[in-house]
Design brief:
The protein has about 550 residues and is of the alpha/beta class. Strands 7-6-5-11-12 form a 5-stranded parallel beta sheet, sandwiched between helices. Helix 5 links the parallel strand 5 and strand 6.
Length: about 550
């Protein structure tokens, strides 16, 4: 709320004039019941002990000083043990119209991030098959998180970590090689852990057409060619799917490059220098138990091979070496046990604990006709992200993925999100925007032309509680974006948009706009709707969802 900054400055002066120190635990929050005012303030209770005064008596004194210093406060009531409930003037809320229309697409942005350099790494699926809807949820969350943080003033770069090294990628190469031999009429012995999807056959057939001599090559050479071709083919498909899904990565980072440029050994040296490694049973160990993990972890096995953890440590040190101050990783919820391990590594690298965070993304249960659709990449039985997009569209998919807290399971009902009804969350919000656009077209057709610079002339005609309620909701947007950025909670935006849309639909159902009796009220309400439309558009953009002008 824009009043908070000014209020805190006024309160700090009041506290200083009283000879007291500013307390850390002051809160200014909107009360759950709007009948109690616009903001509830606990400062009198926090200052009661250091001032040796009764909190209600202290609240009375502070309330009087606030009313004198802040012209936009019309009431300061004392409640309970010493809460101060503040109510702002209607003029304060009406000014929101001018503010929003003046800022336009930038309304809701702030400098709360203070240009802090942040890296958000997300999706990072092994390029062993197409993206499924679980990857889609992580993609929507990571991309929207980056959008929100940029809007809140952070300097954000997004990254995809290509897992192009390790066992799974060698299995991919082997799977394509065996399929290619099968297509060539050779006898094949199938291992237990090969990839069975139809896409493996397609890749093998395509590669064989390009290189007909391939089945006759030495097996190891053939497998290497199959591995490189399959990985690039799948990666190209992943990039195209993400483009369609409106997801952008600034950097595509190769895991193999870490080994090739010595980054892994460099990370080992850092850990050893900081006293966190030892050798035992011919293996190289990281003493993570000293840093909160449940057991120590192997980095280099006795056979000389590296663990995944070794590469991950090197990768995160590489991130810090690129001058990122804050790292945000988006991981599947099945990696929750990996978080303490990675936090231990960050600390061992000499970085602050709060310089690293993880957003855990729970599974998506894809539902159709009341039945859950089974998914398994290796068995080839899974619903790909692109299939879902083709079925319901990017807007619906993104909004649904962002409609719940990331660490909560999500039932994705294909039939629901295709419905053009108010029961469909994305339709509900988008229709609010389209409804306002329709009203604006009708206004223009009737000869009404609005000039945003003249909105202030009509604000005084916004007197209904429902009108001021919409403006209160709009005013909360900037603070909400900043809060969503700091809490790594993009679902806060979708919740907010649902509430704003609900209030807009309710207002439209109970109030005349173009047919209001007073021409001044018509103008005032049109400006109010323009204000709401702008915030709906800005919020949807943070989710990567379009704001249609007709539906």
């Amino acid at each position: 709320m824009r009043a908070k900054v000014e209020l805190i400055a006024i309160l700090k002066k009041i506290v200083a004039d009283m000879g007291l120190e500013w307390p850390d635990k002051v809160s200014l929050e909107a009360p759950k019941d709007p009948n109690h005012g616009d903001l509830a303030l606990n400062i009198a209770m926090v200052l009661a002990k250091p001032s040796k005064r009764n909190p209600r008596e202290l609240a009375g004194e502070i309330s009087g000083k606030l009313l004198e210093a802040a012209s936009f406060i019309v009431a300061a009531d004392i409640a309970g043990p010493g809460f101060i409930n503040l109510r702002f003037s209607p003029e304060f809320w009406r000014e929101t119209v001018t503010l929003v229309l003046g800022k336009g697409d930038s309304y809701g942005s702030s400098d709360s991030g203070k240009n802090k350099k942040v890296q958000v790494e997300f999706v990072s699926a092994n390029p062993t098959g197409p993206l499924h809807i679980g990857h889609g949820r992580g993609a929507a969350i990571g991309d929207s998180m980056a959008r929100i943080m940029r809007f809140a003033g952070y300097d954000v770069q997004t990254e995809y970590y290509i897992n192009d090294a390790g066992k799974q990628m060698r299995i991919l190469g082997l799977s394509v090689w065996l399929r290619l031999l099968e297509l060539a009429g050779r006898e094949v012995e199938w291992p237990d852990d090969w990839y069975r999807g139809e896409y493996i056959i397609d890749i093998a057939r395509e590669l064989w057409e390009k290189k007909p001599e391939l089945p006759n090559l030495e097996p190891e050479k053939g497998k290497d060619i199959c591995f490189e071709y399959a990985m690039q083919s799948i990666l190209d498909g992943i990039k195209e799917d993400l483009r369609i899904f409106r997801v952008h990565h600034d950097i595509w980072f190769s895991e193999r490059s870490l080994v090739q440029n010595g980054a892994v050994e460099q990370a080992f040296e850092t850990l050893t220098r900081n006293g966190h490694t030892y050798e035992q049973d011919e293996a190289f160990w990281f003493r993570t138990t000293d840093l909160g993990d449940d057991k120590d972890r192997v980095l280099r096995k006795s056979d000389g091979s590296l663990t995944y953890f070794a590469s991950d440590i090197a990768y995160h040190e590489n991130k810090f070496n690129r001058d990122f101050e804050y790292l945000v990783d988006v991981w599947g919820a099945d990696h929750h046990g990996y978080v303490p391990r990675m936090r231990a590594a960050i600390t061992a690298l000499g970085k602050p604990k709060d310089s690293f965070d993880v957003i855990l993304v729970q599974l998506v249960n894809l539902m159709q006709n009341g039945q859950q659709i089974a998914m398994s990449t290796r068995a080839g039985k899974f619903e790909t992200l692109i299939d879902v997009i083709k079925e319901v569209g990017t807007d619906a998919a993104r909004f649904m993925f962002l409609s719940r807290k990331s660490d909560s399971p999500l039932d994705f009902d294909l039939e629901l999100v295709k419905q053009r009804t108010m029961d469909n969350p994305v339709y509900y919000v988008q229709y609010a925007h389209a409804r306002i656009c329709s009203i604006m077209r009708k206004a223009e057709e009737s000869g009404l032309k609005l000039n945003k610079e003249n909105s202030g002339e009509y604000q005084r005609y916004l007197v209904q509680e429902s009108e001021l309620g919409l403006l209160r909701r709009v005013d909360a947007f900037t603070e909400l974006v900043a809060s969503a950025a700091s809490a790594l909670a993009p679902h806060h935006i979708s919740y907010y948009l649902m509430e704003l849309a609900r209030e807009l639909h309710g207002f439209y159902a109970s109030h005349q706009v173009l047919n209001a009796e007073d021409a001044n009220v018509v103008q005032a309400r049109l400006y109010l709707l323009l204000t709401v439309r702008q915030v709906l558009r800005n919020g949807l953009d943070l989710l990567g969802v379009s704001a249609p002008e007709s539906m």
